[in-house]
Design goal:
This protein is α+β, with helices and mostly antiparallel strands. The protein has a single domain, classed as Ribonuclease toxin, BrnT, of type II toxin-antitoxin system (Nuclear Transport Factor 2, Chain: A), CATH 3.10.450. The chain has three helices and seven strands, in the order βββααββββα. The strands form two sheets. A five-stranded mixed sheet has the order 1-7-6-5-4. It is globular.
Length: 93
């Protein structure tokens, strides 16, 4: 899977790294290798919650460019409410 990132020109780094520098790029490959729970959509932009292999939950705002290409706009550590909705959806599957 190909994952690209939105770039913040002012900060000169990926947009998600401006406020959440503890998130590594490799975490996105982990999150999208497993099913994610979409918790919002506005047009083509999706907001989803997923889990890394270490069990960390991330909320990711992204575009699905193609089946094999995801463009990440931003991301942050998930809130408790978002994690609970992920657990609720995973139980139903």
């Amino acid at each position: 899977m190909r994952i690209t990132f939105a770039y913040d020109k002012k900060a000169r780094k990926a947009h998600y790294r401006v406020r959440h520098s503890t998130i590594k790029e490799s975490a996105f490959a982990e999150v999208f290798s497993e099913p994610v729970v979409v918790i919002g959509q506005k047009g083509r932009v999706l907001k989803a919650v997923g889990r890394t292999f270490q069990g960390r939950f991330l909320t990711v705002v992204f575009l699905r460019v193609t089946e094999e290409h995801i463009h990440v706009i931003t991301a942050w550590p998930s809130t408790r409410k978002q994690i609970l909705s992920w657990h609720r959806e995973m139980k139903e599957q």
